[in-house]
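Narrative of activities, Objective 1.

The group set out to show that a structural description can be obtained from nothing but a protein's sequence at a throughput compatible with the screening campaign. Below is one input-output pair from the validation batch, recorded exactly as produced.
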Amino acid sequence: MRKIVVMSALALCAFTASVTAQSKHSFALAKKDFLLDGKPYQIISGEMHPARIPKEYWKHRIQMAKAMGCNTIAAYVFWNYHEQEEGKFDFTSENRDIAEFVKLVQAEGMWVLLRPGPYVCAEWEFGGLPPYLLRIPDIKVRCLDPRYMAATERYIKALAEHVKSLQVTNGGPILMVQVENEYGSFGNDKQYLYKLKELWEQNGINVPFYTADGPVAALLEAGSVPGAAIGLDSGSSEGDFAAANKQNPDVPSFSSESYPGWLTHWGEKWARPDKAGIVKEVKFLMDTKRSFNLYVIHGGTNFGFTAGANSGGKGYEPDLTSYDYDAPINEQGGVTEKYLALREAIQSYSKKKLPAIPAAIPTITIPEISLKPYTSIWENLPAAVKSVQPKTFEAYGQDYGFMVYKTTLIGHKSGKLDVVELHDYATVFLNGKYVGKIDRRLGEHNIELPKSDVKDPVLEILVEGMGRINFAQALIDRKGITDRVTLNGMTLMNWEVFGLPVKSEFVQQLQPAKSTEVKPGEFFKGTFTLAGTGDTYLDMTNFKKGMVWVNGHNLGRYWEIGPQKRLYCPAPWLKKGENEIIVFDQHQLEAATVKGEKSLE
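Output recorded for this entry:
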């Protein structure tokens, strides 16, 4: 391919381009080049996701990317993070102000690649799609299903209203908008892709578009859109770029996801790709003057219930709370060896000195905090819903959290209990006594119920819905008991169902235990006093499986199977003086301690 002639000042450093609202710029696609103000421009992008970063740290993370040599920030927008209830959009609370994030990028003299979905993957719950869609029994997603498209149109209209004034055509920093994401790895409904592009245009988006797919002919054919630049996930060789050129020789291509790190699932070892591989790839891209985006330069955290899951050869694979990703900028925003190596590599192509690396965010340790049993899930159940057979979370209007399914055994009263298509993790109780767990991740779906001397035994199943699958063909991933429950082949009927979304408000209003009975499903509570705040990691080694809230903020899931044993708690969620920590654990029964450490490991 013809090499792009790029002025190094334009190509390498954000501070060389004046990206101000007062000075409008133009951005266009030539046959081979991206053109900024009519001149060839090399995009050197680092990806980060506002939803995974506390808003107070957005500026710091952007400055970190700039100091590594990036002139652009790529950002996913997670639809389900902004429309948590159907028809109610939130672009203002906590870290949801996308417009503010884009303005911060512009203030640093940098550009933006906007990746709004509607589907994004990203190891994020349901790939960014809102779970309320799953309340429709026969919904089809990522196609022209009219129910799905009605919701998509509503989302595009809402988001476009917040970002259209920030396009480069209006004096803003947004250079390009991505159409869907890696669609060739999912389907081939070209009319769906054309409709998405049309909807963005109808709602005021007039910058160039791009797609992103693996560098394989079939994927590029199914996922590309006429007139849109071709992103390659990843573009690391001449062969990859040749495939893009063959698909459409009239638009430029770039490496839309070059991977410095990789994701990790629960129960695996940490994914830690060597820095040599990404440095070699970046040097190839710099030598050949190709644009690229590092996925991710900074991963952040899957706070709350936002972590997704994969469904590969191993079956169901839920993602960790940490999205550290072994990225150049670690979860807490710190410099890594990979960061320094990439900074040095990018700097070697420019005569302009890169900005100084921003000062590190202060970290603190916290001495051991004693957490004592406070109450249980069983003493805080809502009113029951009667069901002839158990249904999914979504069928009861619940998106995340836990659910208790309860029935009295008639006929068979012991033997092989089979929870057909459990999603995702259950603890099983007979007459209030713990029997065992069932873990979808391990392919488990049955357990042996012991004999009981109770005339009418009571069965309770506490189900945790973990992350919905975010990639490939298994996206329709409803939670809870998705089919039925049998005992020795007999289908169990007549259930009471207790929905437990376990939102922060629920946790803050928990009532202390009245009973002395101890049963797995306990909430633990403690306080700790700080003279000053700083980022910390809460070490959950002494607990088994559950979630943590600090001052009402949900830090996410922990699990003794690892590899993650510490949860990131950012300084803005702490306060001088007394702080409160609440832990819900599905197995722990006794008091235990947690402590604050300075790093993920």
